[in-house]
Amino acid sequence: MGASNDLTALLVIVWLFGLIFVLASLFRPVPPFRSRTQAFFLGLPGILIGPFVIAIALGWAPAPRDQGGATVIAPAPEPQSASRPPEDAGPSPRATTDVVATTTTATPAGPSAPEIVGLTHINKALGKRVSYREPRTKVLVKQDVPAGAWSIKELSTNVICFVDGNNAVFFTIGERFIAANSKARQFVRHKAGDGIVLANDKVAPVEELERGTHIKLVDAVIDAGLALCGQKSVDEISNAVKEAAEVPAAASQPVASLDNEVLFNAALAIRGAEICGYDFNAASMVDYLQAHDVDQKAFTAKVEPYLVIANGILSGGDKRFCKKDFLPKFGPEGFGFVSER
Asked: Structure pTM?
């Protein structure tokens, strides 16, 4: 059994001071030494023995090491495990994180998690219901996220995204479905028929966390979700919206259609320039609209729904898409609507 931390620190400090006195006395005697000879024959041997005294005080001895190694060998359990059938052996300590999480959280009497089959909501800009039908899920546990990021009491969370979706990422806290990024917050409607579609035809609402809640965990969830379903470009998102938009009801008011790529490209350029901080070339935009037989009056009357859609696609999250997707399409090498400052 070693000495306490306070005693060890005191011994080290005393030894350091003694070393200083002895070394100084070898050049010029310092009390308690009256000569260099005393310092050499009396002080120096004591200083050399000092580290061994400190080591012994710390409990540095061969006996504890041998005893610690001997306790590792425990032959008694071997006959017991050999007499049992293989299926009774229990989970291996080398099991992966996913297996450990499953065996920890599973309760035999509890109901299984509901199967997710879709994601749906009414898109106000389109006046149509947009539904995505290719869900993917991934279970995250504490070991899967950076240290200190796990801030919920649950032992695991399900990350949800949609291959045919718009980069929306969701996760679960208990039985609640939470929007992780800005794309997912478009589905926070709290109206009948909007939310996560389950296999039992129920639609679970999507909730939004208070600002600043579970920030580190949400970042890890977003990264996992985008990697799971593949992060889409601006063009891929717009195509996904068109393919997922259902035919509006007869009573619905007519609205501008996404089929008009001219207006949609103009809206994306306008909102993208604001979000990414690029200079906007209005003259180039006017030339583009005139070349496609869209005058200023028609543009002003019809562009508003497209601006709403473009804002939902481009706003929020990081801005890596600015140089990766937006600038090549709308910059000097593309349409020429924007340029870097």
From this structure: 0.48
